[in-house]
């Protein structure tokens, strides 16, 4: 494991991180707070199209339909959960550690006329209030990057019904050197973060080949582990362009400078795509 001693941020710190960044992402990226998926270098899809495509790719792996109930662990403002529900007919319960996101997600569900079928709650995905075996499938879309992975995976396995699927994405460091990895510091899926002495690592990361062990230790059976780094790498430059393109509009609407938001979210305006890999993982509870 690359960063076994990394301590996840507190719930409060995580909520502050996303509450600072969320308005900027909504204005300049998409309501999907995840990486985009492009078919190749010539794919000119917009961030909205590319992030929706990534959602669809994960949804297709969940294997759910009408009558099923899915947990979306780390649901952001609910955009993937709403898309999942409308594509499959399943009911979805989205949880996030940000109360602001819960409110925004509920609002989006009401606007979409889907509040009956898609519910959002404040909860910690590492220690949920749900009974064992409550869900037919669990989705964790770019959220386990912020969690203590073994704890989160055990909890996701606990709430899954036997035969249920867990589908997630994670970030990893491509071709890591053990010493470099340990010293690499925190990083965000989109931007290298600035390490500050008393600040937590918002994101930790492991190696791709740590995943089979993580999955089996959680009592799950690995079905798929796919490296999608090449498909997501456009994200970094596109997101930065989006931030810069919307700088004036953002600053006048919210009365804060772009740099202040990036600083408060502990992000640097220097994208560091070379250090970011992305994987898709699917596993089944026996
Ligand atoms: C990169 S965003 C992805 C959001 C959403 N899955 C999407 O694709 O739009 C990570 C999400 O994980 C949530 N999160 C982080 N730690 C969490 C925890 N311990 N429990 C629940 N949610 C958490 C954050 O609040 C945020 O909503």
CATH class: Alpha Beta
The pLDDT mean sits at 87
Number of beta strands:
7
What percent of residues are in strands? 15-25%
Main β-sheet description:
7 strands, mixed
| CATH superfamily grouping | Vaccinia Virus protein VP39
Oligomer: single chain
Compute the gyration radius: what is it?
18 Å
Distance between the termini: 25 Å
Number of helices: 11
Structural category is alpha/beta
Rough outline? globular
Point out poorly predicted stretches: 1-5, 177-197
Strand order of the largest sheet: 3-2-1-4-5-7-6
CATH architecture: 3-Layer(aba) Sandwich
Please estimate the helix content: 25-40%
The string of secondary-structure elements, in order, is HHEHEHEEHEHHEHHHHE
Instruction: Report the CATH topology name.
Output: Rossmann fold
Ligand names: S-adenosylmethionine
Give the number of domains.
1
Would you spell out the secondary-structure blueprint of this structure?
Layout: H1 11-28, H2 47-62, E1 69-73, H3 79-88, E2 91-96, H4 99-111, E3 118-122, E4 135-140, H5 149-159, E5 160-172, H6 178-183, H7 211-217, E6 221-227, H8 229-232, H9 234-245, H10 247-254, H11 258-264, E7 277-284
Parallel strand pairs: 1-2, 1-4, 2-3, 4-5
Antiparallel strand pairs: 5-7, 6-7
């Amino acid at each position: 494991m690359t960063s076994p001693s990394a301590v996840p941020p507190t719930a409060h710190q995580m909520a502050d991180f996303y509450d600072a960044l969320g308005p900027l992402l909504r204005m300049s990226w998409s309501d999907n707070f995840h990486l985009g998926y492009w078919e190749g270098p010539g794919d000119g899809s917009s961030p909205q199209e590319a992030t929706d495509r990534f959602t669809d790719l994960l949804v297709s792996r969940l294997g759910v339909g009408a009558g099923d109930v899915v947990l979306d662990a780390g649901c952001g403002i609910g955009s993937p959960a709403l898309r999942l529900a409308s594509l499959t007919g399943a009911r979805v319960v989205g949880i996030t550690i940000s109360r602001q996101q819960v409110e925004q997600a509920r609002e989006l569900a009401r606007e979409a006329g889907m509040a009956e079928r898609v519910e959002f709650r404040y909860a910690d995905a590492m220690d949920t209030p749900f009974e064992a075996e409550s869900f037919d499938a669990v989705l964790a879309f770019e959220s386990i990057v912020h969690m203590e992975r073994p704890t989160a995976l055990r909890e996701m396995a606990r709430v899954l019904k036997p035969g249920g699927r867990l589908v997630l994405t994670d970030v990893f460091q491509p071709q890591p050197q053990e010493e470099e990895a340990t010293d690499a510091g925190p990083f965000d899926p989109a931007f290298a973060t600035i390490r500050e002495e008393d600040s937590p690592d918002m994101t930790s990361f492991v190696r791709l080949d740590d995943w089979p062990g993580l999955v089996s230790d959680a009592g799950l059976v690995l079905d798929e582990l796919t490296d999608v780094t090449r498909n997501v790498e456009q994200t970094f430059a596109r997101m930065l362009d989006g931030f810069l393109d919307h700088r004036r509009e953002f600053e006048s609407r919210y009365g804060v400078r772009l740099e202040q938001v990036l600083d408060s979210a502990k992000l640097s305006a220097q994208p560091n795509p070379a250090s970011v890999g992305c994987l898709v993982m699917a596993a089944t509870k026996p």
